[in-house]
Structure of Group 4 capsule polysaccharide lipoprotein GfcB/YjbF:
Amino acid sequence: MRHPAPKAAIAAALSLALAGCSSLPLPRSAGPAPDARAQLTRAALQEQGHPVMYVALPAMGTSALLAPSGRNGDVTTWSQANTVSLSFEAGILTATRGLGADMMSAELSGTRAMMNGASPERGYPRHIGYLDGEYRQRFRGYLCKPGTRAGETITIMDQPHRVTRIEERCTSPEGGFTNVYWRGANGTTWKSRQWISPEIGYLETELLVR
């Protein structure tokens, strides 16, 4: 019979993960990403007294727990002790640092409008900035259009959330990607799958504690 982990052990595991023991990035792995949420409970998460986000890089075979580390206007940055950081505006990824092939910046006006159901049918531009071999920022342009949009219920750490699942499909001559956002009625992005770069692939997120 499997017994639940003691409450103190769970809290210790969470503290270690938030301190950077569950690290990003790791070498690319052929297997699934290790789950940084293992042995955690909602009660232990609530005791932390601050928001907690679970993030995974499936193509890299790694995951981690992040806490907010700063805010600049509408942009919130989440990070862990090993200097990896992810910045979001209204749940939309706008920059990464410490991952290697980082997203240096992203133009989000079209995506924000799409999330609110106000994007044009012909699509909207999305520009993502990356560093080239000489550490200069270069932009890749995409034409994005809204995909399917449907209501559903998701469960995160035993907590159900009624959300709208929103797809964003972006293409360019060099390739494309599909971002997916699970957004609550109050605008909270509880879960997402968002493109970073060809080298890193997709970032998956879950907001464990708001």
